[in-house]
Amino acid sequence: MERIISDISKAIDGCEPKNLSVTEEGILFKGGIFRFVGNWNQLAYIGSGQISFSRKEDIILIHYRISFMQWFIISGIMAVFFFFATASVATTLLVWLFIFLGNSGYAFYRFPRFLLAAVSGDQTDRVHQ
């Protein structure tokens, strides 16, 4: 399990988080939009996260929690500016949904695949989410 934790923490560190803490129980990190990274960065829309690991027989289970609160607030501020430009509540709501749900939804979709891709090849058959 130590090797899997190490592999995933190295992959997260490669995404240039603001903070990264690795313990025997898991990994804590802070990402967010206020870093000099592109929107392709895995942690661009994820404000923070916690990854824990447990063992069930010969299988390693990965449990994670990720937060999009920072992106929620930023996209809300963007929507307010958009509202002042258009004065249309319906259009502003659609734009906000597109901005927030589109980006956070895609990040939510990508994150478990990112975790599995980070695990070394000979360990992937032992890892489940």
Oligomer: single chain
Run of helices and strands? HEEEEHHE
Q: Structural class of the secondary elements?
A: alpha+beta
Strand order, sheet with most strands? 1-2-3-4-5
How confident is the prediction overall: mean pLDDT? 87
**Rg, Å, rounded:** 17 Å
What would the principal axes of the Cα set say about the shape? elongated
Number of self-contained structural domains: 1
Biggest sheet architecture = 5 strands, mixed
Strand content: 15-25%
Write down how many β-strands occur, each being a DSSP E stretch of 2 or more residues: 5
Number of helices: 3
How far apart are the first and last residues' alpha carbons, in Å?
A: 14 Å
Which regions are unreliable across 5 or more consecutive residues at pLDDT < 50? Answer: none
Give me the CATH fold name: TATA-Binding Protein
Helix content: 40-55%
CATH architectural arrangement? 2-Layer Sandwich
CATH domain class: Alpha Beta
